[in-house]
Amino acid sequence: FLEFNYMIMQSYDFYHLFQNYGCNMEFGGDDQWSNMLGGTELIRRKLGKDAYAMTITLLTDSQGKKMGKTAGNAVWLDPNKTSPFEFYQYWRNVGDADVLKCIRMLTFLPLEQIDEMDHWEGEQLNKAKEILAYELTSMVHGAEEAEKAQSAARQLFSGVADHENMPTTQLDAALVKDGKVGLLAAMVGAKLCGSNREARQLVQQGGVLVDGEKVTDPTFGLTVEQLQNGVVIKKGKKTYHKVTL
């Protein structure tokens, strides 16, 4: 029902913003063009005034899928939702086929410099991903946070963990049972997984390391002493997270 009325709702939203806040231009992805035009038409008919709409090219991956919250792969500018390290890692891990497009669309690097990257292959593409990740993290969170994130990422993947700049979650003390916090509960508490079921499946499939050691037992627990010192959980190949008490 809401999907069929989406254009009406968005049109009225633009009308309300125009009338109450003086907003006379709406920006959106190019998939929102008809919805925004509905708003300009509503304003013209009800108020006899002009309003404007402007679309922006959607950011899609090499498969044509949107990169955003609707597709389940959103990255947030708010550091409370996506930490600077996670933000850096998001862009560091884009696909080989997407990195140069992202550099062109999202950074302010000279086009001549980007054109030179068109012929990069293999390890050079990893360098391009580092450039993309650093430039965007610096733009959003500042150069200092970008330096920290880059340093932490390089150390992690060289086998030397930089715990100080790693995303960290302080777990709720209520999770402690018999002197331990279950690994599944810790993963859910750190938002590495959305549920115990998802965490259990990941552990049983061998996709979780605890302080560098693979754990496949879903009943595995982290002791209070371990957590007080900080425990690093690695999910899959690229996600690192420290949990503490």
Write up what this structure looks like.
The chain has 245 residues and is of the alpha/beta class. The chain has 3 domains: 6-56, no CATH class; 69-162, Tyrosyl-Transfer RNA Synthetase; 168-244, RNA-binding S4 domain (Structural Genomics Hypothetical 15.5 Kd Protein In mrcA-pckA Intergenic Region, Chain A). The chain is built from 10 helices and 9 strands. It has helices at residues 6-21, 33-47, 84-92, 99-106, 111-117, 123-141, 143-157, 183-189, 196-204, 224-229, and strands spanning 25-29, 52-56, 168-170, 180-182, 208-210, 213-214, 221-223, 231-235, 239-244. The strands form 3 sheets. The protein has a 5-stranded mixed beta sheet. Strands 1-2 form a two-stranded parallel sheet. It has a two-stranded antiparallel sheet with strand order 4-7. The protein is globular.
Looking at the overall shape, the CATH architecture of the largest domain is Orthogonal Bundle
Query: Total number of β-strand segments?
Result: 9
Q: For the largest sheet, list the strands in their spatial order.
A: 3-9-8-5-6
**Order of SSEs, N→C?**
HEHEHHHHHEEHHEEEHEE
- Here the CATH topology of the largest domain equals Tyrosyl-Transfer RNA Synthetase
Mean pLDDT across all residues, rounded?
Answer: 88
**Count of helical regions:** 10
What is the C-level CATH assignment of the largest domain?
Answer: Mainly Alpha
Distance between the termini: 46 Å
Which class best fits the helix and strand makeup? alpha/beta
What proportion of the residues is helical, as a percent range?
Answer: 40-55%
What proportion of the residues form beta strands (DSSP E)? 5-15%
Q: CATH superfamily assignment of the largest domain?
A: Tyrosyl-Transfer RNA Synthetase
The biggest sheet, with number of strands, parallel, antiparallel or mixed sense and barrel status, is: 5 strands, mixed
Instruction: Give the C-alpha Rg.
Output: 23 Å
